[in-house]
Amino acid sequence: MQLWLYFFLSLAIALAITPLVRFLAMRYSIYAYPNHRTVHQGAVPKWGGGSIVVAFVISALFLYWQSPQLIEKSLMLLSLLFGTIILFILGSFDDKYDLNCNLKLTVELIVALAVAVSGWRFETLLLPGFAELSLGYFSYPFTMLWIVGVINAVNMVDGLDGLASGIALVVALVCIGISAMFGNQLVIVISMLLAGAVLGFLRYNINPASIFMGDSGSLPLGFILALLSLHTATMAPGRVAIMVPLLLLGLPLTDTTLAIIRRLRRGIHPFHADREHIHHRLVRLGLSQPGAALFMVGLSLIFGILAFLLAQGMHTDFKFLGQLLP
User: Fold this and answer.
1) What is the DSSP letter of 52?
2) Which of 221, 231, 283 has the alpha carbon at shortest distance from 252?
3) CB–CB of 234/244 below 8 Å?
4) Contact 117, 97 (CB under 8 A)
């Protein structure tokens, strides 16, 4: 019951400060203007990531202050908050000044390395059929690739009102269910705080959106989702059922993989924006923007249910095997 109070705290903060963030974005002319790769009409304030990050960080710090017993791994929590703030700052500058993609990638890699050192990393991959793959020295680069990949996947899927925030809400809620099975308390706590912050922002981000999250939101949001999905199906320190995070983020990862392949085949930079993402294609097929966003969030929910069922099956099997072994 106490955790739900922190969920509502995060929700209330996001609901309260999003209008203020919108005012500040307008005050400093931080707008998303229509161009060849967007589908919205007119200039829309961005920098909405500020409301998500502020609500999430304040709630997490308040939780840590009031109930430190809920957070067993302080270093992991603090490294997550540190990375979230750094990527929010990076995204905020990008929203205003359109930073070079190589600079952003460099910062993302540094942040990914920092959290991997603090404990957020794959060490042994649990594969279907109870096979295990020990990563050894490849643990750090594999983890960094995962984190940076998810960050950019969430960034790329943020193309319709409420789409990225809707997918993030689904992933956070499914992470709560999976983590409850495996007893991953840290993920439960973080997921509930994130769900509250995203839901509060979503109130202003559904079509027609009065504010966009911008890179100030998509970068830290992708970062948090990467760490949550990594740790949600951890059966022992460093041992991760790899299919669970792959399914949880299956939709944005598929969209990003297709985008990179498409752009490389055309001889252009893999981060060069275009209007060939799945949501763009759905709109061209005749779906409205809200309809396309709702369809993709629903598809993400299906992926999430599959991830939950897979995790449940693995959890049951491991408990059964544990009873058989001496």
Assistant:
1) H
2) 221
3) no
4) no
Distance CA(196)–CA(185), nearest Å, equals 17
Residue type, 60: A
Neighbouring CB atoms inside 10 A of 126's CB total 21
The pLDDT of residue 323: 43
Bond into 208 cis (ω within 30)? yes
Rounded to an integer, what distance in angstroms lies between the CA atom of residue 192 and that of residue 6?
Answer: 8
Q: What is the DSSP letter of 29?
A: T
59 close to 10: Cβ distance less than 8 angstroms: yes
Q: Which two tokens stand for residue 73?
A: 């791994």
Low-confidence ranges of the chain (pLDDT < 50): 320-326
148: nearest Cα among 276, 35, 256, 23: 256
Q: How many residues does the chain have?
A: 326
CA distances from 141 to 135, 210, 249 (A): 10, 39, 19
- The structure's pTM equals 0.93
Question: Is residue 104 classed as helix, strand or coil in its secondary structure?
Answer: helix
Q: What are phi and psi of 45, to 5 degrees?
A: -60, 140
Q: How far is CA 241 from CA 72, 206, 232, in A?
A: 21, 33, 9
Q: What is the pLDDT of residue 270?
A: 76
Name the residue with tokens 């509930």: 192
Classified as helix, coil or strand, 45 is strand
At residue 32, φ and ψ (nearest 5 deg) are: -100, 115
φ, ψ of residue 37 in degrees (nearest 5): -110, 0
Closest Cα to residue 155, out of 37, 36, 242, 243? Answer: 37
Domain assignment of residue 114, given as a range: 2-324
Q: Give the separation between CA 223 and CA 13, rounded to whole angstroms.
A: 21
pLDDT at 324: 37
**Residue pair 221/168 in contact by the 8 Å Cβ criterion:** yes
Coil, strand or helix: which one is 207? coil
Q: How many domains does the chain contain in total?
A: 1
Any idea which residue has 């017993």 for tokens?
A: 69
Decide if 304 contacts 171 (C-beta within 8 A).
yes
Cα 175–Cα 177–Cα 181 angle in degrees, nearest 5: 110
